[in-house]
Amino acid sequence: MTSPSLTEVPVLEMSAGWHTGAPWAELREAVTRHGAVVVRGLGPRERGDAVGLCRSLPVPLMAEREPFAPRDRHAEGVYSSSRWPPDQPMCMHHELSYALEFPALMIFACVTAPGTGGATAIADSASVLGALPRELVERFERDGWLLERTYNGDVGVSVAEAFGTSDRGAVEAYCRANAIDFEWRGDGVLRTRQRRPAVVRHPVTGARCWFNQIAFLNEWTMAPEIRTYLIDVYGADSLPFTTRFGDGTPVPEEAVTAINGVYDEHTVSHPWRAGDVMIIDNIQTSHSTQPYTGNREIVVAMAEPVRLADCAGPLAVPSI
């Protein structure tokens, strides 16, 4: 397989039946080869059509757990895009890269294209890995990365939205089963920590991929005024989320800046048209959302669940 070192996202004009049988098999192979493809010409123009299309694909869908931002659930495994301020970019990330099970495929169906902006951008994670400072990669490969979250009920998702239940016993059982350290604080506030590998191997191609949300979920990626506000309100040790080196050491601002800078250098944008369907290999390709104006509706499906243990690496079975 070749690496998706792209200058643009491949756009394929497909005939009827593209999402079944042999056409789908060819398309699925193209996604692995390029990292992402766009199907144009026969896509959905209504939300119900988009939901139906996602559910008709010959791949297993998965329910989202541990989201970082709220979504609307349209059907089992099919959601709205994350609710996010339209004037703020959603930075590069791999969906659920902090979970022990995550989607191998992300499927985006554009119902309403934005007035301006709003592109879904991608970056090849193998190329990003090769361009990052060597000493930074070596440390993250050695120690992994640590995601810290505080479910305070005010910012981000609630405990019930993250874990599918508000029952403390069920939440604790989920955390134990998924290598998440936890503690309950006053007023039902939940604090969690989970250590994960920063580099994995693609289960099909064997390519080493920079696979994490170290920069996106780090406090230094926040707008300075938002970071200052959150620290003032919740304290530096109780932010809704931040990331650290796997040994618990803070990730310095310059490291986060370097990671985001490499992402910027490898970003390829796809401007949406209504009816477009974009399919992304979630392991070898990160994605982001650019700021936009006007209405924008993207239906999202998470497909082909894969276990972190199947992406062999030194921290494939993590521990706190």
From TrEMBL:
Query: What GO molecular function terms would the record report?
Result: dioxygenase activity
Look up the domain of life of the source. Answer: Bacteria
Please list the residue ranges annotated as the TauD/TfdA-like domain: 24-302
Query: Which cofactor does the UniProt annotation name?
Result: Fe(2+)
Q: A GO biological process this protein is involved in?
A: antibiotic biosynthetic process
Q: What's the protein here called?
A: TauD/TfdA family dioxygenase
Q: Which InterPro entries match?
A: AlphaKG_dependent_hydroxylases, TauD-like_sf, TauD/TfdA-like
Keywords carried by this UniProt record:
Antibiotic biosynthesis, Dioxygenase, Iron, Oxidoreductase
Lineage at the top is:
Bacteria, Bacillati, Actinomycetota, Actinomycetes, Pseudonocardiales
Identify the Pfam families for this entry: TauD
UniProt entry tagged with the keyword Transmembrane helix: no
Q: Does the keyword Oxidoreductase apply?
A: yes
